[in-house]
Specification:
Chain A has 147 residues and is α/β, with parallel strands linked by helices. Chain A contains six helices and five strands.
């Protein structure tokens, strides 16, 4: 059985994240959306709020689980028996970052492979940072939150 | 009439910014240099100092206006009736960032188009961060501030 | 009066090229679409076919002219009195190429400035090479040719 | 059932390709290694030689099939009922190319998703071009051909 | 006599830094490993700890010196009579940053040239940030700290 | 004694190549400018013409040698006892190519290290391809050929 971890801050979970998760579900038996919590950094939403939001989005799928974790992604992956890590790729800057992360994770946990999904072009500009900026300015973030 | 917004932090306005603004003036009827103010982040110069500095640089041109704004760039653009957003491009990392910003702005404000001007090679290394570092170290930032 | 040259091989002129040209028309008084002809390289379409195709697309606009040229882009620009060169940017690889071209052109013809327009995300994958591949395979290239 | 197409020229199939194929086998029920044949371009090996070589490598796996095809990758994918396309990513230049290809394929065949696997760092420099250069110079290409 | 400065935060000095320093020693008569101290930013290790750690690594080489400095790298280079600055390059994002830094340093100190060494592929994912994350999570950072 | 090979096609040797070679001379005891000859590809200049041109440029330096070679760069490096390979870096696209080449060469010849020199910004747009285009169009290539 294949189990993919989809790690991120998800503050908040964007339409781009949603798209990646749905596409991952077509490839893996189980998908664990893993909300990385950095206790030193206050987010816009609490980890619990993010978890509840994502769980609601995937309420219809019993193959999706939503978790929070602290510390290294590889330690979380080990704890759930993940076989893969899945991440989205929006542009060349993302690539440099994700490639290094993939190799770091492989060095620490060789049995878990990283899979990169190219962002849908109409969602490639969407980031959690952008959504937070729109929300802070009182703008309408709805089109950035769901497809 | 074409009206270009040139948004940035401009803390301070560099020789590279100056070059972009002058080239934009050759393309657009009016140029609004828009100083984005982030109330959560204390800059080296106040928004008023930055504004006064840029206004002095363009005192001779009645087609240039200098403004400060808070919040989303698209909201500012709407408020001034901008037809274009102009930004400089120094390298491939800049490109990834600016491409995402251009698409985000287009999604939120479809009638305003983004125009990217490649930095002059002799100014491509100049950034406001570098100038602040030079100033903090007591160095001579003059060649980085004006062409 | 501002005159922009939009140079390329345009073999064929794609939906992406069409988008760039239309956006350039919003910025410049005149737009000269300049089909670069490389006599050493046989294209899919002749220069005349490309010219006729593009002219038909812009038949309604008297501010657009379509030309063919051989040799350096800067020499063509000089011959038509261009004030700007306009080009599309689809990705980071494009950027490296276009940045070098912009600086080369500036070194040879300092008075003509290069303006880069970020490709619309839904068209960023479109290239003349792709269209030629689709046509050779008997596929339907229509969605790649016009918006 | 998931069926991944792994398309390429594979002239020859490198240690890097081998690694990608083995990792793809851990994700998909079936893997079809698809040798794209360009009749206008003479390769170092014939399509039949490449096919025989790859088949020998995967003789032990009944979930792998090796095919040759002409024309568009999407047409081949449709003919075999592929659910996914898998490709390796070695560097940022690869990314720009693969991102455009992924979007082009999605535009033409929306039901087939592209999955990108980051190259193993110790194999990221390996390319078929390099192997051909080594072979032409009488060098030892063995370490580049199998892991 | 050639004197290379190898500047960085080195919080901590990684296996990647170690590799770059050893390779630099094969090119330059003297190597000065220069720990840049940012008084506004609290690191994981103090400047003294970093210095002691690096000195221990190079205790056997009398051509290596370890220093701490505040302010601009160019000012430090001038103070030690450096002829070169050496830096590692891990990926395209690094390149954009290092290229700008090299040009900035050259503009301020034309006689000192920057030399970039491509990271060993098996170490290209190693960063001080990664090591700090591993240490904070109670993981084993030893393989990231020495070759 | 350090011996650097500076390999390239040099068809022709540009102002950018000249700059890299002069900077390499400040780092290495000997510099061997190595003109790679591809018998399958007719250049603008013959290998002998390129060699004579470069030799004339460095006639005053007895630490420079100019050679032609066929086949793999690593085989040439071995034949001259090179300790280093030196190459220029103009942009992020160059980096992807040069990084792969450096790792390929290291895999085949571990004792020879690759050193990358960032191009001078005012020369970063110069390429042999550009110079050939200018020459074919009857333009003045002099500023591109020497500093």
């Amino acid at each position: 059985m294949s189990i993919a971890a989809f790690p991120g801050s998800f503050d908040p979970f964007s339409a781009g994240h949603h798209d990646i998760a749905q596409r991952a579900l077509r490839m893996f038996d189980r998908l664990v959306i893993a909300i990385g919590v950095n206790v030193e950094k206050k987010g816009l939403y609490t980890a619990e709020q993010r978890k509840a939001y994502i769980e609601a989005l995937f309420a219809a799928s019993d193959r999706v689980e939503v978790c929070t974790y602290e510390g290294l992604t590889v330690d979380f992956c080990k704890s759930i028996g993940a076989t893969h890590i899945v991440r989205g790729l929006r542009n060349a800057a993302d690539f440099s970052f994700e490639y290094a992360a993939a190799q770091a994770n492989k060095a620490m946990l060789p049995d878990v492979d990283t899979v990169l999904l190219p962002a849908a072009p109409e969602l490639a500009f969407v980031s959690s940072t952008l959504i937070r900026d729109v929300l802070k300015s009182g703008g309408d973030a709805a089109p950035l939150l769901s497809k």
